[in-house]
Design goal:
- The structure holds two protein chains of two kinds.
- By secondary structure, chain A is of the alpha/beta class.
- Chain A has two domains: 4-92 and 172-326, P-loop containing nucleotide triphosphate hydrolases (Rossmann fold, 3-Layer(aba) Sandwich), CATH 3.40.50; 101-171, no CATH class.
- Chain A is 31% helix and 26% strand.
- Chain A contains eleven helices and 14 strands.
- In chain A, the strands form three sheets. In chain A, strands 6-7-8-3-9-10-12-11 form an eight-stranded mixed β-sheet, sandwiched between helices. Chain A has a four-stranded antiparallel β-sheet with strand order 2-1-4-5, with helices on one face.
- In chain A, helix 3 (110-122) crosses helix 4 (126-139).
- Chain A is globular and about 65 Å long.
- By secondary structure, chain B is an all-alpha fold.
- In chain B, strand 1 and strand 2 form a beta hairpin.
- Helix content of chain B is 78%, strand content 1%.
- Chain B has helices at residues 2-28, 32-36, 43-53, 59-71, 85-120, 125-139, 142-156, 168-198, 201-208, 213-242, 245-250, 256-265, 269-297, and strands spanning 77-78, 83-84.
- In chain B, strands 1-2 form a two-stranded antiparallel ribbon.
- Classes of the chains: A alpha/beta, B mainly alpha.
- Chains A and B meet through helix 2 and helix 3 of A and helix 9 and helix 10 of B.
Amino acid sequence: MSTSLLNVEDLKVRFKTEDGIVPSVNGVTFHVDKGETVAIVGESGCGKSITSLSILDLIPSPGEIHHGRIDFNGTDLQAIKKKQLRKLRGNEISMIFQEPMTSLNPVFTIGNQISESIRLHQRLGKKKALMKSIEMLDRVGIPDAEAVVRRFPHQLSGGMRQRVMIAMALACNPKLLIADEPTTALDVTIQAQILELIKQLKTDFDTGVILITHDLGVVAEVADRVVVMYAGEVVEEAPVEELFANPKHPYTLGLLSSVPKAEHVVDELGTIEGNVPNPADMPEGCKFHPRCPFATDKCRNEHPELEQFDSNHKKRCFYDVEKGGVA
Amino acid sequence: MKFLLRQILRIIPVLFIISLIVFLLVRVTGDPISLMLPETATEQDKAELRQSLGLNEPLYVQYFTYLGDLVTGDFGESFRYNQPALSIVLERLPASLELAFFSMIIAIIISIPLGVLSAIKRNSFIDLFITGGAVLGKAMPNFWLGIMLILLFAVQFNVLPVSGTGSIYHLILPAITLGTAIAAEMTRLIRSSMLEILSQEYIRTARSKGLIEAIVVNKHALRNALIPVVTIMALQTATLIGGTLITETVFSWPGMGQLLIQAVNLRDMAVVQAATFVIAILVIGSNLLADLTYRYLDPRIKYD
């Protein structure tokens, strides 16, 4: 994997709480190549956001990375000093977050907030940084950018704010963009525009993208490869067409059957029974077995490994699952 | 500018109501005549004085006379000092304002750094020390702290004057006395406000940009955290202007608190009315200042 931009290996994150240590991410491994979009998919609470936050060491306290390795462009991010990591943040690796309403500081102008990182990382003066901010806003499709830099976040709509976030994130030409549910809080039409924007900018800037989402529609739209997470683990990984055509993990199967499709009118959408298990009280064996329609005694007692069964397809399941059941 | 004009226009009915309340309160708390005359005075003496002060008129006539005088800035004459009441009050005003201002400055200087530090070092030894100190600061009675400060700095080390006014040195001990209690309350408020702001998503955004922690805290968090603090500051300033009687007494500070209490005890109605009125205007003024500060700190606030 010499071309990999980002390599996450056996990442483990835990939270030290008053009730004891709660594991949140349990040995996650994945990689992102240059200019590639990798989607991390899973239900709320499966550890996908924590995984993405740990790349830049932004996990909220009392969380901590206690095992694993994160390599970015050949640098071990956990071995470098805080100062060096700060140089990467917002410069080589940028993030955009789910809530454009709350991700921008309400008391500073848009221009101030975008030029802040430009001034920091590119050492430009105030005026030049503001010019660059206007240029970036233009680039992400904000009309009348020169007026917008003087506005405050509350004066913009949600879609506009997310564009501002994207402009801010891309201002320093990052090599990797981490987008944590970037369209979840937006209207469907705005959602499509934002996704289109991310796709286009990715090509323009040749940026690698990690897209965190629970929305498989979004995945199909923009991702090259998909990592499916469940209860802090990767349960399946495959290129996007392969995953949609040939899902191998019962959880992926469940996720896919809960997506409404226009061409098949069905009475009822598929659901996955039950909930994501509480991290403090993980089931024995395969973590998905309490919700799995195909679970056997083996699943209840043994924990499956993530196995590569095809050149580009990995799964964490003992069985070959097809639509009809266990083969 | 339009906002300021509207606010000032709003003050007029408030002042009107205050004048009515002050007027009634002074009159329902007892007969001033009996205090103004010696015990040996006859009923006729009393009746004459009442007549000459206009106190035998119906209440509403008295009120309108009073209101008419107010408009011309005439609060009547203090029968104790035989001087216009307003000039007595205005004479005391600078000392009160001076003390209030410096106490507030001290409170701000103490509380902002400590509150911020306490929040960013949450649950550490430093935090425990600061929040513990804040509880102590709030719990200490003013007069006790004042006396302790006098004993330490004026008597023991002899570096500051015991009491009175005249120089910046006279101001230090009373301002510390008053500032400590306010600082204690503000520190706790700033701490909790900072803690809330630090968990906001835009703080994570700021960190994800690669900013150093000092900028994240001092630029992105503090400005947001100060918004609720401004309210408390305005309220405290109002209290400082009007009622710092105990501290004024301990340090023989010639402020309005002392004047007002004396006037109430002597039923010196004119002075009570004038002092209350001036204090009311200052309180309104400090609230207006708080409103303006809000608008500066938080662009989301726009009054229509």
